[in-house]
Amino acid sequence: MKKILVTGGCGFIGSHTIVDLVENNYEVICIDNNSRSNAAMLNGVEKILNRKVKNYKVDLCNFDDTHAVFQENPGITGIIHFAAYKAVGESVEKPLLYFENNLTSLVNILKCAEEFKVPHFVFSSSCTVYGNPDAMIVTEETPQKPAESPYGATKQMGERIVEDAVKASGLKAILLRYFNPVGAHPSINIGELPIGRPANLVPAITQTAIGKLPMMQVFGTDYDTRDGSCIRDFIHVCDIAHAHTLALDFLVAEKNTNACEIFNLGTGDGYTVLEAIKAFEEVSGVKLNYKLGPRRAGDVIAIYANNNKAKKSLLWNPKYGIRDMLDTAWKWELKLQNEGFGS
Ligand code: WQD
Hints:
Rossmann fold; 11 helices; 15 strands; 18% strand; globular; binds UDP-4-deoxy-4-formamido-beta-L-arabinopyranose
């Protein structure tokens, strides 16, 4: 089996991707320093897979510790690099923390990839690299505007670092630009685990609905959209996960025409914040306690994906709709409430 190193594998998208990789006959090694994740998420992964996952609690900002993992595991065929801080608001308050962590870890993992001749590299990027695009529907060729946050800047810089590294080294890479990953694995054994008060919409909705939060706000209803609230392309985390497996298949089969290929991962459908709340209320049967508040600094008004390239080249077809996303997110929140985490 082809051996794949997954950094940040205890995280939301990382854990779901490990499940998909193993189910598609890849061997997986996880690296995560658990600074923003919980190693117990792997309990849920192992429950789904009915097998153990090799995990190293290592900080990728420590080159020697990272290097040791490669020395101990010869023959790694590919790397999927998720490990990074990703809270937009926090990045505005602590930019240097974000530049140091997100870029140092990336450079270290790329240095090891070069030294140990790991041929395939998949980078976790984000639609945030588009900034506030002129057109709502973006393709991979849409020109990037200035990032709205230091977090977004680390993704723009990260893409450039990967592109330059592969040009110099013969590595082959894919940049996957996620839109808004939401939901949970249908088994409800793994899901999103925000640390502290959730910044993102769907966990804010589910935590408010279950009573962890007394109320939530809709950040802005005076935008030039059909109902005044922002538009986003919500995509199920399992569809995002499967795209990583397909991206590796694509690289391993040497189908990439360029050293570094870019793919948008979104459904291509845009929902407003208020529409997402309404859909949640219908799916859960819970009346959500929210108020209409002021805009949030740094928010993009409307963005959703033209995903034709991923559909055509990766043969990727997102299969979950908005109701599945909200239903699995809600069921995961209920499980956390009823059973706790890590069981
Ligand atoms: C979506 C919409 C908010 C919370 C960011 C990153 C992106 C990715 C996902 C990592 C916005 C509104 C939110 C709330 C609200 N990060 N909202 N009330 O900002 O589109 O994307 O997170 O993978 O890279 O840029 O996601 O879920 O924070 O916000 O009204 O309590 O929901 O204003 O319009 P965002 P989000």
